[in-house]
Design a protein that fits this description.
Blueprint: E1 5-13, H1 18-31, E2 37-41, H2 48-54, E3 57-60, H3 67-73, H4 81-86, E4 89-95, E5 99-102, E6 115-118, H5 133-138, H6 142-148, E7 164-168, H7 174-186, H8 196-208, E8 214-217, E9 220-221, H9 228-235, E10 249-252, H10 268-278, H11 284-306
Parallel strand pairs: 1-2, 1-4, 2-3, 6-8, 9-10
Antiparallel strand pairs: 4-7, 5-10, 6-7
Helix pairs in contact: 1-10, 10-11
């Protein structure tokens, strides 16, 4: 696909998460109404209704020009890479389908950077002596990386979730990514979470070599962080998007999916986004019924999978 706009938002959808991506799209349109949106459709999923409601640019995995590329990224977390190599935007914000925009984050996006990390803190101090335990679980086996890249500096960076970030198209080439996939095949367990470990390693290593310019900003909330500001935002808006938030950010509900039937799972902002989405075509109570039906269907699917 040729570049159509200098900047836009991108998310993806497959049949199993379509009930979530409507919330993602609704949040993008509410807070950034003039920003174009690309939806990557993975597999045989009908997104014509979403395309109509949100005026989307649809990029289908099965229509990518390279069969090798289709096989590598289809049906996996790597689906986001379609935007990097074949997307319609020169610069874009990526959001997983379990994430929403919370405020006008377009104002915080830095297009002077090749890659903008959305994370609130430096994860490993520059003077750290020991590798943290979480690195091998969430990102990569540092000893294995050192065997292939002895000079790699792993300290002083904000290790980030790959569910939200901003970058330039082709900031990582297809050839560079494919090489990392070969590393992973040669050393199983080298990288974690399919794309997350590779993405963090490549961004940090390319920055160290002076190939790209990176930066980081507190623009991604996840469940491990304080939700004080979010709770205050929700306390004044009922079940609608707050017009003004205490801090523009993205809310990433990774891990346990945000369900109204899971009382131990904080999901109110995501539920608000789902309501806004469904109220495009239903009444308020009709929207609630749609959400409850979706959540019941998700529980039924999990039960079927167990058996």
């Amino acid at each position: 696909m040729k570049v159509q706009h200098p900047f836009g938002f991108v998310t993806a959808c497959h049949a199993g998460d379509k009930f979530m991506v409507g919330a993602t799209l609704a949040s993008m349109r509410y807070y950034c109404p003039d920003v174009p949106i690309c939806l990557i459709a993975d597999g045989d999923v009908d997104v014509s209704d979403l395309e109509k409601d949100y005026d989307l640019i649809v990029l289908r995995i099965d229509e990518l020009p390279s069969e090798e590329m289709r096989k590598m990224i289809g049906g996996s977390y790597r689906v986001k890479l379609a935007a990097m190599w074949e997307g319609p935007f020169e610069h874009y914000v990526w959001l997983d389908s379990d994430a929403i925009v919370w405020g006008n984050i377009a104002e915080q996006v830095r297009t002077d950077l090749d890659f903008q990390i959305f994370w609130p803190e430096i994860s490993v101090p520059a003077d750290a002596k020991e590798e943290p335990d979480w690195m091998a679980h969430f990102y990569f086996d540092l000893a294995g990386i050192k065997k292939r890249h002895p000079d790699f500096e792993w300290r002083g960076y904000p290790y980030f979730s790959a569910g939200a970030f901003s970058c330039r198209r082709n900031v990582i080439s297809y050839e560079q990514w494919s090489e990392m996939e070969r590393w992973a095949e040669e050393a199983p367990g080298l990288f974690q979470f399919q794309d997350q470990g590779i993405l963090n390693y490549l961004i940090f290593s390319k920055s160290q070599r002076g190939e790209i310019k990176i930066g980081w900003d507190d623009l991604q909330w996840s469940r491990s962080f304080s939700r004080k500001n979010i709770d205050q935002d929700c306390s004044v808006c009922g079940w609608s998007f707050p017009k003004h938030v205490l801090g523009n950010t993205t809310l990433h509900f990774c891990g346990r999916k945000p369900s109204t039937l899971d009382l131990n799972c904080f999901s109110r902002p995501f539920t608000i986004a789902r309501l806004v989405h469904h109220q495009r075509n239903h009444s308020k109570w009709g929207a609630w019924c749609r959400i409850l039906w979706e959540d019941l269907a998700m529980i039924a699917y999990k039960i079927r999978c167990k058996f």
